[in-house]
Amino acid sequence: MQLSSVVTSPKLLLQLCISTVQCFLSSVFSKVRYWTTGACKGTSSALSPVDNKLDQKEIQNATIPTSVNYHFTRKCNYKCGFCFHTAKTSFVLPLEEAKRGLKLLKESGMEKINFSGGEPFLHDKGEFLGKLVQFCKQDLQLPSVSIVSNGSMIKEKWFQKYGDYLDILAVSCDSFDEETNQLIGRAQGRKSHLDSLYKIRNWCQQYKVAFKINSVINTFNVDEDMVESITQLAPCRWKVFQCLLIDGENAGEKALREAERFIISEQQFQEFLDRHSSVSCLVPESNEKMRNSYLILDEYMRFLDCREGRKDPSKSILDVGVKDAICFSGFDENMFLKRGGKYLWSKADMKLEW
């Protein structure tokens, strides 16, 4: 049917034009609201002086970065097939710039910093990491300073120098079978990943650092029974993740990994959790809980928004400040709390038996 047969008067034509314009503006406003939803509280509908003031209020009321994960390097000596933060650059900020960013985060309300990678002990043989850990605990006096590592590069002398400033050390271990770790890529050559894990567990106890284990459940370990090994190691927390796909990292044309073969279903993940329900320190994280519930800073100190299944970076906090950048983080604070993101994370409060 032709338009001329429907529109029979100038009045109807005008209404049609108005309706079209309204639909267009509605779409634009919807996009604006989407960009500012999640990390910034309230809604945005710009274009007027009043609305510009609302934008400023959103920045002022932005999420407080209570717990932040700083992936200061992407380089790693392991080749885990499902890795979702891959070596797409070799960039690492200068030490003083990294400290400046950490100070900005503290001034914005940060209580916990977690250093990760890549492999954080790889850069400068762990000295860069150690200096950041010391700065955060000694100068910024953060309640909690933690690290996630594969454990392969850690030396006892690092604990001797920096152990006092570290609250929690998490070591990633996906299997207690060496062959399975080799299949996953959680290894460097034929070096034993499990030997490193047990050695670090002992060092943590000796130097009074809370010991944690992170495991990614995937097709190669989903049927494994880890109860005995986890019970023996007795970590303060055992974080169990469902393998997650991130476009551009471990999925898609531009990805450095192809993790599709590692993916398990929600049912498989739940069955694994059910079999390990007797482990009191187990903290499960499904894809739903994990995807948007972390404040992630990349090597340029940009927040990464994962809401679209990929990592969309904000501007760097070093350029625009924390409150401006965090509005583009996609952070879901409710899910952060729901998954138990806030817990006793200072070793002074854990009352652990050393």
From TrEMBL:
GO molecular function: 4 iron, 4 sulfur cluster binding; catalytic activity; metal ion binding
GO CC annotations, alphabetized: endoplasmic reticulum membrane; lipid droplet; mitochondrion
Signal sequence coordinates: 1-23
Record localization: Endoplasmic reticulum membrane
Cofactor: [4Fe-4S] cluster
Entry keyword Protein biosynthesis: no
Biological process terms in GO annotation: defense response to virus; innate immune response; positive regulation of immune response
All residue ranges annotated as the Radical SAM core domain in the record: 62-282
Main location group: endoplasmic reticulum
CDD domains, per the entry: Radical_SAM
PROSITE patterns linked: RADICAL_SAM (PS51918)
Family, as annotated: Belongs to the radical SAM superfamily. RSAD2 family.
Protein name: S-adenosylmethionine-dependent nucleotide dehydratase RSAD2
Native source species: Collichthys lucidus (Big head croaker)
